[in-house]
Amino acid sequence: MIREDIDLRRFNTFGLPAVAERYLPLTDTEQLGDPEFRTAPTLVLGGGSNLLLLEHIPGLTVHVLLSGIEWSDDRGRFRVRAGTDWNQFVRYTLEAGFPGMENLILIPGTVGAAPVQNIGAYGAEVAEFITAVHAWEYGRGMVELSPEDCAFGYRDSRFKRETGRFLITAVDFDLSERRPLKLEYGAIGAELAAAGIDTPTARDVAGAVTRIRRSKLPDWFFYGNSGSFFKNPVVPRDHHARLQEKHPDIPAYPIDDDHVKLAAGWLIDRAGLRGQGNDRVGSYAGQALVLVNRGGASGRDVLAFSGLVQERVAEQFGVELEPEVQLTGSPA
Ligand code: EPU
Q1: Per-residue model confidence (pLDDT) at position 331
Q2: How far is the CA of 87 from the centre of ligand 1 (A)?
Q3: Within this chain, do residues 168 and 243 fall inside the same structural domain, yes or no?
Q4: How far apart, in whole angstroms, are the C-alpha atoms of residue 156 and residue 264?
Q5: Which residues line ligand 1 at a C-beta cut-off of 6 Å?
Q6: What is the pLDDT of residues 36-80, one digit of tens each?
Q7: Catalytic residues, which ones?
Q8: What's the 122 CA to ligand 1 centre distance in angstroms?
Q9: 10 Å Cβ neighbour count for 319?
Q10: What's the gap in Å between 232 CA and the centre of ligand 1?
């Protein structure tokens, strides 16, 4: 049933005030046959953890509440409904004896949102485990997309590029293949060594990632945020070489023969903005790439501060930062 003028503040982890003109909880795929689903809604809401909402959300907001495991087998294959909490699903797979996604533990959001921006952390990306995405194509009906159809990239997919075409209802995962643990990224190795673990299991890695994330990233329960606010920028090699002359310690990850990925958090930090901001919004002191709601921030406040961050980083390093979060709505 559609409700009007619903406050979305508690449905977005940034804690930003926003009123949805019309709001529809999706609890059953049968509802997709309703006339509302012939065209795309303004906003498809999952866990609300990658959003920057402005005050007014016109039109229809659909809240995907389809939840739970729809199907699984004893080889480690799962079909999971889109509204299921991502972290809960990762924990479930580990407890059921199917390692693989331990590096992706504790990422906020839902299973259905995971393929949209191809969530990733500590050297792993969700695309590695997805075998199919089930979606409602507006004006058409239910479709099944293969991983190739999804066109996954770094924090990117067809669902992000073709907004307004699909509503994801379920995702298929295959964890049957035994993969080597990914220990080389970030502080995982150091964290395991500090705990005295030299032959780690997937659960040990999950524990290490949990501790690292908790120490670096703010808990949105206390400090509203949407994780990394910007993507890590990819620049041509010669641009990186020029920056490296001035800043020999600049972190960089090779992408291909001609391009290098830089760390947006480092750039913001070195631009002098880590922990800076005003009384409503700022950059988090523990990880500059995360912008936080210090209390009472609006979407406009966050947008204004993010613009300042972009300006300073462009001035100082000649690098354009592109938001990773999805901007929706209009000022009230
Ligand atoms: N750094 C600084 N200062 C800072 C922050 C970072 O100097 O304030 C440096 C770090 O020392 C490190 C480099 O920048 O050398 C990269 O930092 P980090 O390892 O913390 O990772 P990140 O590149 O900032 C990415 C993802 C995170 C993910 C982590 C761990 C993106 C945009 N972000 O962050 O994902 O958790 O790696 O894998 O790719 C998210 O997408 O919302 C998210 C939190």
Answers
A1: 86
A2: 19
A3: no
A4: 17
A5: 121-122, 186, 227-228, 231-232, 251, 263, 265-266, 269, 274, 287-289, 324
A6: 999 999 999 999 999 999 999 999 999 999 999 999 999 999 999
A7: 155, 228, 324
A8: 9
A9: 19
A10: 8
Confirm whether 58 is domain-assigned: no
Q: Which of 266, 270, 292, 312 to mutate to test the pocket of ligand 1 (most atoms within 8 A of CB)?
A: 266
For the segment 276-332, what is each residue's pLDDT rounded down to a tens digit?
A: 999 999 999 999 999 999 999 999 999 999 999 999 999 999 999 999 999 999 987
Half-sphere exposure of 88 (CA within 13 A, CB side): 13
Helix (H) or strand (E) holding 316: helix 299-317
CATH number at residue 121: 3.30.465.10
Average pLDDT over residues 185-200: 93
Q: Give me the helix-helix angle, 86-95 and 202-216, nearest 10°.
A: 150
Q: pTM of whole model > 0.70?
A: yes
In-domain check, residue 282: yes
Is 240 in the same domain as 168?
no
Q: What is the pLDDT of residues 72-107, one digit of tens each?
A: 999 999 999 999 999 999 999 999 999 999 999 999
Measured at the CA of 121, the angle between CA 18 and CA 218, to 5 degrees, comes to 50
For β-strands 124-125 and 120-121, DSSP reports them as antiparallel
Lookup: tokens for 10: 């508690």
Are the beta carbons of 283 and 309 closer than 8 angstroms? yes
pLDDT of residue 92: 98
Atom 23 in ligand 1: which residue has the minimum CA distance?
Answer: 263
What are the start-end ranges of the H helices in 8-145?
A: 86-95
